[in-house]
């Protein structure tokens, strides 16, 4: 027997089409002047900000807040896709964006969508990196593909991970060797120590600072 809730509840993904329609309305003539003026470049800072707000929502454990912030991140995707439609020579739309990520996910999960066999999560991760290397053979620099704008501790951890995967861990040891007054080397050593213990140094420091702020506010 079908209940009223089952009948009225939209199909999975149906509201995404409504979001695309809302974004089109906002961007089209007669819509919102502010939305109509935005470009990929002007929107870029909002994407960064929303990603950080999403991370805060996850850390808070507040499910309602998490849904809200996920919506804000989704808006950035829909907004950029709508802006992309208007490019004079190389337009793209939300379906192109979706097609690109679907194709990538299928290609990088051959154990799900093809006949590859894996023994666990470690095999999946190794396979993912191997496939990515084949997709992007022109990447030669150490930081190619790693956003240089990442917070420094996160950038150090990502770089360390890449060096370890490519068998160049000795470079890490040399860079993190104690040097007089070399604060950078000392910080890198702390990042490597945290990685060795399965700790995200960026999140650890963030948590300590937030606890400090909460204590200071409580004492005020």
From TrEMBL:
Record-linked Pfam families:
MazG
Give every NTP pyrophosphohydrolase MazG-like domain span. 38-113
InterPro entries xref list: MazG-like_dom, NTP-PPase_MazG-like_N, NTP_PyrPHydrolase_MazG
Query: This protein is called what?
Result: MazG family protein
Organism of this sequence: Arsenicicoccus bolidensis
């Amino acid at each position: 027997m079908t209940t009223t809730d089952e009948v009225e509840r939209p199909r999975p993904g149906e509201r995404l089409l409504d979001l695309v329609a809302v974004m089109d309305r906002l961007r089209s003539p007669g819509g919102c002047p502010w939305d109509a003026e935005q470009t990929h470049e002007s929107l870029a800072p909002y994407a960064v900000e929303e990603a950080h707000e999403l991370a805060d929502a996850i850390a808070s454990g507040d499910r309602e807040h998490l849904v809200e912030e996920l919506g804000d991140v989704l808006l950035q995707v829909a907004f950029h896709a709508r802006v992309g439609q208007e490019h004079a020579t190389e337009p793209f739309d939300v379906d192109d964006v979706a097609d690109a990520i679907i194709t990538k996910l299928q290609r990088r999960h051959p154990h799900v969508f093809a006949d590859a066999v894996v023994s666990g999560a470690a095999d999946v991760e190794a396979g993912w990196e191997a496939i990515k290397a084949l997709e992007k053979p022109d990447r030669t620099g150490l930081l190619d593909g790693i956003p240089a704008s990442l917070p420094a501790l996160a950038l150090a951890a990502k770089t360390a991970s890449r060096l370890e995967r490519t068998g160049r861990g000795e470079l890490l040891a040399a860079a993190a060797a104690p040097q007089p007054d070399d604060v950078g080397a000392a910080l890198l050593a702390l990042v490597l120590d945290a990685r060795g213990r399965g700790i995200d140094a960026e999140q650890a420091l963030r948590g300590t600072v937030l606890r400090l702020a909460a204590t200071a506010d409580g004492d005020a």
